[in-house]
Specification:
It is a single chain. By secondary structure, the protein is mainly beta. It is built from 3 helices and 38 strands. It has a domain of 320 residues. The strands form 5 sheets. The chain has a 13-stranded mixed β-sheet, with helices on both faces. A 10-stranded parallel β-sheet has the order 4-7-10-14-18-22-26-30-34-37, with no helix packed on it. Strands 5-8-12-16-20-24-28-32-35 form a 9-stranded parallel β-sheet. It starts with 17 loop residues before the first helix and ends in a 53-residue tail after the last helix.
C-alpha cells in the first residue's frame, strides 16, 4: 500500500462544521436501545455483555440466553448500546474477517457511555495489557461513540492487522462513505505495528473511505499517545477529517518497519483534507513531516497548534500541506489560529512549490518557502509573533487546552476577529464564551480573567 499516493477527490472549501457534527448525534426515531448490565464479558442468563449487545444490534434480534432486552422501540437504522460507566477488559480478539479485533460492527449503531460533570467519558473499552496484540473496534457501518474511552489496542501487521489499533473504519462502498463519529470520548494509548513488508497506519484511528468526525474528544494524551508508522492519532484515506472542540496530543509516527521511511502525520494524516475548529493540536511528533497534521488541505478556525515536532531537517513541524493547491479557488487557510513553538523549521510548510495558503487574524510562526500567500490576505496573516502558550492542562471543559498568559502571549488576546463566526464558546464549552473582550482571542482558548467573566453585551464598540 503506497499511502503517499494522494486522491484527486477535492473537498468543498473546508469550513467549520460544528452544526453538522452535532446533527450526526441525533437519535433515530426508528431504533432500539439495549442496556449493558456490567463490565463482564461472560455470557450468562443474568447478564447482558457488550458483546451480546453489539451482536444483537448487528443481527437485529436479541441474543438468546442472556439478559439483553430492548428498552425502547424496535430494531432500526441506528440502534444504541448503553454502556454506563463500565470498564470492559478484553483478553483476546474475535478473529474472523477482521483478525484480532475485539468488537466488530456491521450495522449502524451508537455506543453511549456515562460522562462526568465536565463531559469526560466514564465508559472504557480496553485491551488487557498482558494479552496478545489485537485491535479494539472494526466497523463497516456508521458508528458513533459518546462518553467512551478506547485504549490499549494494538493492531499488529504480523497478525493480519497493522491498521487502527483503537478503531478501524472501512466503507464497503467507496461511493457511499460511512461515518465514524466520536463525541465526548477519548482514544489514547493505542498503536498500529508494521512489519518488514507492511507499514502500519492509524495508531488511534484508521479510516478507509470513512469520514471521521471528532467533537469534545481527546485523541492521545501525555504518556498515552497513539503510535503508528503513518498517522499516529488519526489516519484517513479517501475521506476528510473534521475536528471540533477537541485535543489531539502526544501522538507520534515512527520510521516504517518496512524500510519505506514513511512516518508522516503525527497527530492527523489525511489523503483528502482536515478541518480543525476550536481545537488544540500539541505535542505530536512525525518522523518525516507534518508533526501536527499532514494533508493536502488543512483549514483551521480558532485553533492552537504548539509544541509539535518533526525529525531535524524535515518539513512542517505544525502542518505539512501535501496538495498542489495552486488553484485560485481552492487553498488551505487559517482564521484566528495561534501556530507557534512548533519545530524544527516552519509552523506550516508545503510539499509543492506554489501551494496557496490564506487567512486572517493569525499568529503563525514561520511560513515555508513553498507557500504562496493566497486571496486577499493582509498583514494579519502572520503579523503577530506570540510566544508559546502555557502547557496543555485541565482548564475546564471535557478536553485539555493551552491557556493564554498575558505576560508571554498577550499579543493573542483580543487580537482575533470581532465576529465569532457562529461559535458561542471556546474549546472548553458553554461556560467559556468565545468572545470575552473587545474582540476574540487568537487560538482555541479565550482568556477570561476571574474578575471579568461577563458576556459581551453587544454594545461595546470595537
Amino acid at each position: 500500500m503506497n499511502s503517499r499516493n494522494r486522491s484527486t477527490r477535492v473537498l468543498p472549501r473546508l469550513a467549520p462544521i460544528a452544526t453538522g457534527i452535532s446533527m450526526c448525534f441525533a437519535i433515530s426515531a426508528h431504533a432500539a436501545t439495549i442496556a449493558v448490565t456490567s463490565g463482564s464479558l461472560v455470557e450468562s442468563p443474568s447478564n447482558c455483555t457488550i458483546l451480546d449487545a453489539v451482536k444483537s444490534i448487528n443481527q437485529a434480534s436479541l441474543v438468546t440466553g442472556t439478559a439483553c432486552a430492548v428498552t425502547t422501540g424496535p430494531f432500526g437504522d441506528n440502534d444504541t448500546a448503553l454502556l454506563g460507566s463500565n470498564t470492559f477488559d478484553f483478553q483476546n480478539g474475535l478473529g474472523g474477517k477482521y483478525a484480532g479485533v475485539a468488537l466488530v460492527v456491521s450495522k449502524p449503531m451508537t455506543m453511549v457511555g456515562a460522562m462526568d460533570g465536565n463531559g469526560r467519558p466514564l465508559a472504557t473499552i480496553r485491551r488487557d495489557p498482558n494479552a496478545a496484540h489485537f485491535g479494539l473496534i472494526a466497523t463497516e457501518a456508521s458508528l458513533t461513540l459518546q462518553g467512551v474511552t478506547i485504549t490499549g489496542g494494538i493492531s499488529d501487521a504480523s497478525a493480519s492487522g497493522g491498521a487502527g489499533g483503537g478503531i478501524l473504519a472501512v466503507s464497503p462502498n467507496t461511493n457511499n462513505p460511512i461515518t465514524l463519529a466520536l463525541v465526548n470520548s477519548a482514544v489514547t494509548g493505542n498503536s498500529a505495528v508494521g512489519n518488514a513488508s507492511k507499514a502500519s497506519v492509524g495508531g488511534g484511528i484508521a479510516a478507509y473511505d470513512a469520514t471521521v468526525l471528532v467533537e469534545n474528544t481527546t485523541i492521545g494524551a501525555a504518556g498515552a499517545g497513539n503510535v503508528a508508522d503513518i498517522g499516529g492519532g488519526i489516519y484517513a484515506k479517501g475521506a476528510p477529517v473534521y475536528v471540533t472542540a477537541s485535543s489531539i496530543n502526544s501522538n507520534l509516527t515512527t520510521k516504517s518497519h518496512d524500510g519505506s521511511g514513511y512516518g508522516y502525520g503525527g497527530g492527523i494524516y489525511s489523503t483528502i483534507g482536515a478541518v480543525l475548529t476550536n481545537s488544540t493540536i500539541s505535542g505530536n511528533y512525525a518522523y518525516n513531516g507534518g508533526g501536527g497534521v499532514d494533508a493536502p488541505i488543512v483549514n483551521t478556525n480558532f485553533c492552537t497548534l504548539s509544541g509539535n515536532t518533526t525529525r531535524s531537517g524535515r518539513p512542517g513541524g505544525g502542518v505539512l500541506l501535501t496538495g498542489n493547491t495552486g488553484s485560485t479557488s481552492k487553498y488551505a487557510q487559517s482564521i484566528a489560529t495561534l501556530m507557534t513553538g512548533n519545530s524544527p523549521g516552519n509552523g506550516v510548510d508545503a510539499k509543492n512549490a506554489g501551494t496557496r495558503f490564506g487567512g486572517d487574524y493569525n499568529s503563525i510562526e514561520h511560513i515555508g518557502g513553498n507557500i504562496t500567500i493566497a486571496g486577499n490576505a493582509h498583514s494579519k496573516l502572520m503579523a503577530l509573533a506570540c510566544g508559546a502558550p502555557s502547557a496543555l492542562g485541565n482548564n475546564g471543559g471535557p478536553t485539555q487546552t493551552m491557556a493564554l498568559v498575558p505576560a508571554t502571549n498577550g499579543c493573542a488576546i483580543d487580537a482575533g476577529p470581532i465576529s465569532t463566526d457562529g461559535l458561542s464558546s471556546d474549546q472548553r464549552g458553554a461556560l467559556f464564551e468565545r468572545r470575552a473582550g473587545r474582540a476574540t482571542d487568537i487560538g482555541a482558548f479565550e482568556y477570561q480573567p476571574a474578575n471579568d467573566r461577563i458576556f459581551y453585551d453587544g454594545f461595546e464598540l470595537p
